[in-house]
Amino acid sequence: MDESKKMALIAVRALEDKKAEEISILDISEISTLGDYFIIANGENRNQVQAMADNVEEKLGIAGYEPKHIEGYQTANWILLDYKDIIIHVFGKEDRNFYDLEHIWMDGKPVKKEDLAL
Fold this sequence. Notes:
The protein has 5 helices and 6 strands, in the order αββαβββααβα.
């Protein structure tokens, strides 16, 4: 399993652990140099959004991956966790609908969680 797939799977599982809603995985490797995967999820409230981001950071840290950059943690409207190869976007529900990253990045290839484990 390549590193970015491994990282993405760890991140998705960490989000699931904190009851993330509507987890989307987009393969952006063929359309962008930003990274290989965008992972997008949302929570119900600020506390859940922060808990989701905390769990992703913890689980990836245990696996030996450190974030390049984290942004938006204090407001928790949109927390961006940049791990170079994968970028995790954790939103509050309203902000996710407003920014609609899936539409902006619609040229990315949707990926199922099961495909990351291959």
